[in-house]
Amino acid sequence: MFTKEFYSKKYISILLVLLSVLGFSQKKFTVVLDAGHGGSDIGANRNYGDLGRVQEKDITLGVVLKLGKMLEKNKDFKVIYTRKIDEYPSLTSRTDLANRNKADFFVSVHVNSSPGSSITTQGTETFVQGPNQNKANLEVAKAENEVIFLDENDKQNFANYDPRSPESLIALKIQQSKYLEASQWLGGLIEENFVKDNNRFSRGVKQADLHVLRKNAMPSVLVETGFVNNYDDAAYLSSEKGQKEVAESIYKALLDYRKAINGGFAAAKEPEPVKLAEIPMKNDFRILLMSTATRYNENDAALKGLNYILPIKENNVYKYYYAVTNLASVRDNNLKTAKDAGFRNAMAISFLPNQTLGFGYYTLEVAVSEDKLKNDSYLLKTLKDVERTKEKGIFYYTYGKYKTLEDAVTAQKDIENKGIKNSIIQKVLKN
Ligand SMILES: [Zn+2]
Fold first, then answer.
1. β-bridge partners, 285
2. Most buried among 29, 169, 299, 388, using CB within 10 Å?
3. What dotted CATH number matches 24-276?
4. CB-based contacts of 371: which residues, under 8 Å, 6+ apart?
5. Where in the chain is the domain with CATH 3.40.630.40?
6. pTM
């Protein structure tokens, strides 16, 4: 009797603790809803005799407001809008808003148009910011990024973002792959719902390099809800019913995603609940593509179109590393991407984050030249204390001493902002 009672009391108190932990620690899931375009930026548009002028900026706002209403009714969610009226917030301010609020997810809603005058292309597709781009996706990236040229502020901000500001992650371009997995997962749920619930045609989840996603410090998707130049899509997306259905599909995907994250991953529905349950490793992993004496610049063909490359010079050899992640599955995926791109001997290399070198330091190799740089050259005028060494008739110029790789990456961004491009981080192993 006693034992039984003892255990049941203990059991109940454990249960209560558990419930309170679950109940109070469940922080709201913050979603930033971004209605694409707006104001003077109409986005994709077409004239139809019966539908009138169908404009992307109206459809995206319609969908986002409906989606926001659904989410606001759910106490688990906090909704932040980049716009609620017909106005044009700059792409930077959209991203900053999300980063400042430490959002859990960023959902940007858009409407597609196909290049040329095709009226048959139709369906939905969801884009995530990814290291692997391909040509077809580049078209969408180009169209969506065109808005950037409307905005002088954006141009400036994208050209030189401050890596130390909290709004932007240090060396974001090599960090982004950390959010890829989650973005792809939500994208998959959204596309699946479009097909299953609304009988839409899905073109799938794709990776692209989109300005509105690039600086986001959280998983993000850009949903292309259909093609404005296809009559059926245009009619559907301009209707209340169509917009409501699109909003519902995204809403249900967000619910499932959040549930999976909060309720332990057992509750997650496929696809791939196991992968998200993955515990991040202590180490970062980069994929070593090649070690060579040749110094390549960012867009050199030798890098086979891969982005997110970090070259590090060590003992007169340049090592080219691709992407970075602390998830084993992403690491394996990155390795596969590298091998598929043609780097057959690529391998994953482990890095301890923020590790200081025992003997030595990191520096930036800012120029390599057969001729001595003139004192009034842009480089020497811009940077103070550039060191020059000569080896086998070649002049090597280095700048700065940094304790960690991360510090060197930050410094590299700084000088990039000053117009010193194509510097390479160099590891110097001595005192
Ligand atoms: Zn758009």
1. 325, 350
2. 29
3. 3.40.630.40
4. 395
5. 24-276
6. 0.53
